[in-house]
Amino acid sequence: MSDFQLQFQEQIDFLSQKVNLPTESHSEITSRQHDRAFVVAGAMKADLLNDLHSAVNQAIADGQSFKQFQDGFDVILAKHGWLSNEDEGYKAWRARVIYQTNLRTSHAAGRYKQMTDPEVLKRRPYWVYRHNSTEHPRILHQRWNGLVLLATHPFWRRNYPPNGYGCNCGVDAINERQLKAMGKTGPDELPNFDDDRSEFDSAPGASWYPDLEKYPEPIAKAFVSENMSDGVFDRFIEHTFEAVDMIKNSDLAESTLAKKLRTISTSEQYPIAVLTAPQKQMLGVKSQVLLFKQSDAVQQMAKSAAGLSGDLQHLFDQAQWIVRISNTQFLLHIVFGQRKFMAEIQQSKDGLFLKSFNTASASEINAAKKSGTVLSGA
After folding, report:
1. What is the C-alpha R_g of the chain?
2. Contact 333, 342 (CB under 8 A)
3. Is the domain of 31 the same as that of 159?
4. Selection from 287, 291, 340, 343 nearest residue 315 by Cα
5. Tens digits of residue pLDDT in 363-372
6. Domain count for the chain
7. Measured at the alpha carbon of residue 37, what is the angle toward residues 42 and 160, in degrees to the nearest 5?
């Protein structure tokens, strides 16, 4: 790929939403986690990583050539003293790797978002794998050149390019007319190739969260805050609420209603808050990340959808009091303006989960406070 100067908004958005994660090695997080994390191997200082992230964002947004990016990269190196013991050739190589890797993955992620738009999928339901020449082409990628599969085929979840370091391959979305022009009457049968590739394992832009238990609390908290503010969680809540509301209003018997609600429950889960070290110690839990599962969201919304949007970090940071019911169950009391809420938290072998979050009366709050051991608050 040559220097890229035809940026588009989805590409810019993909880079901008990433949270800086210091790492010693590029392999410390998986390819799925790179979708949400900006990583430069060996860049361990937050201010250095922030400057590098800003430089990459600026390069993509402005359509800078590699030479323009490299000039800014050299300024950052001088400012932070990073790679000061390396020769100029190595510094230039690192600059090109950072530039091209972010260029290709952000372009691919932007294209992926465009091509998976429901209206686009209706018009162009087929994707074509396009191999582009490189100095050292992968034989497997060459074999896939011209392969046509439905956009919904599982193949793309693992092999949507770039699917390896330095990969220049791409994907085109086509319609029925274009499919026939290729001499095909339908999608291809997937060839039976032995695929021992272990570099990338997901489509850029199609993945979700890193294991936030592995990161320091301030970084994990910043990561969750970014993701809670980008609208994805709110849309998840909105869509789940619409599905629950439709079932609730369908005049079903209670037993049938429960079965219907289970059909829209999945194992999907979202990190919604991060505990500080003192909060973990107070609760006596190992997990620092509070998760919210869709199955719990369905049960919650069958009763109430109160407060399930936006920044839920306040569950712990602004709790009036916390009561331990058992070693794995906790109740929290939170006040927002004139409204009072109760939240139930449970620790399991799979993590720490928000089970419910509802408005509560004064009598309910008093009863809850007396139901266990008060850990904090008056």
Report:
1. 24
2. yes
3. yes
4. 343
5. 999 999 999 9
6. 2
7. 110
- Indicate if the alpha-carbon torsion angle 72, 76, 82, 85 is positive or negative: positive
Q: Are 332 and 372 in contact (CB under 8 A)?
A: no
Domain annotation covers residue 223: yes
Whole-model pTM: value is 0.49
DSSP annotation of 26 reads: G
Tokens of 153: 């085929």
Looking at the fold, whether 154 and 243 belong to one and the same domain comes out as no
Q: Are 343 and 332 in contact (CB under 8 A)?
A: yes
Domain shared by 28 and 139, yes or no: yes
For 52-84, what is each residue's pLDDT tens digit?
A: 888 888 888 888 888 898 899 999 988 888 888
Enter the tokens of residue 17. 């939403």
Burial class (CB in 10 A: 0-12, 13-18, 19+), 160: buried
Residue range of the domain that includes 272: 212-376
For residues 320-348, one letter each, b for 16 or more C-beta atoms within 10 angstroms of the residue's C-beta and e for the rest, the string is ebbbbeeeeebbbbbeeeeebbbbbbbbe
State the burial class of residue 13 (Cβ atoms within 10 Å of its Cβ: 0-12, 13-18, 19+).
middle
Residues paired with 356 in a beta bridge:
344
Higher pLDDT, 206 or 344: 344
| Mean pLDDT of the 154-165 span | 78
Query: For residue 48, which amino acid is it?
Result: L
User: Are 140 and 82 found together in one domain?
Assistant: yes
Cα 14 from chain centroid (whole Å): 10
Long-range CB contacts for residues 133-140, cutoff 8 Å, separation at least 24: 133/168, 134/166, 134/167, 134/168, 136/166, 138/164, 138/167, 140/193, 140/195, 140/197
Which residue, among 40, 33, 44, has the nearest Cα to 54 in the 3D structure? Answer: 40
Residues 167 and 227 occupy one common structural domain: no
Structure tokens at 162: 């770039």
**Counting beta carbons within 10 angstroms of the beta carbon of residue 228, is it exposed (0 to 12), middle (13 to 18) or buried (19 or more)?**
buried
Asked whether residue 288 is domain-assigned, the answer is yes
| C-alpha span between 225 and 310 (Å, rounded) | 9
Question: Does 161 sit behind a cis peptide bond, omega within 30 degrees of 0 on the bond before it?
Answer: no
Contact assessment for residue 331 and residue 343, using Cβ atoms and an 8 Å cutoff: yes
And the tokens for 283?
A: 């609760």
- Residues 120 and 261 occupy one common structural domain: no
Residues 233 and 163 in one domain: no
